[in-house]
Amino acid sequence: MEKQGRSYSLEQKLYAITQFKRSGQSLTAFAKVLGIHRLVLEKWVGIEQTEGIKALEPSHGWKQYSQATKNAAIHDRLVNKLSLLDIVKKYQISSDSVLRGWLNQYTNGKEIKATSTGQSHMKQGRTTSYQERIEIVQYALAHEQDYQTTATHFKVSYQQVYTWVRKYQKNGSNALQDRRGKRLNREPEELSETERLKLRVKELEERNDFLETREELSKKLWEIQRRHQ
Domains in the chain: how many in total? Predict the structure, then answer.
């Protein structure tokens, strides 16, 4: 079963695409063999065909979208009933989660504006707690390090998300503590034992999900490779 937040390397994506093309099977059938959702495989194939291999690499930059592009994408979804994947391909949107964000804004009556460049609308960021920073990092990792979507979701700056994720990946959750001045080492102590355990469980679940995903897909891809040798 497909799990939210699975992360795949460029090598895995390319091998999956290559074997799918050789298999002669339908997207649905081959995706089932790999143990991934059909839409995931369809997206990889579509990106490789229309934008090339380079576009399959994870992109952490801030992509600009005009107000007209956003409105056209929303119109195609709500009026023309195009699929999320078709719209993402048509307008070269970085991910379907970005498109969902626009749709949510529109259906909630919020004004759709052009995307600013380089960072989120929260340019200066905001103050966050230790627990919030861990949750934000976990969300970013679960969404393949989509910093833009994460920043918008939590109303923090793009730079904050990027920095926290890099710190977390390098040194773990302890690196997310606020170590300025008198606050050194105080935040973890302000959390209750239950809160600390919950955060630890979240960390382990996130890590286990990533490792299981990578191992499962790698095994399936190697099995397919052996069958075609």
Answer: 2
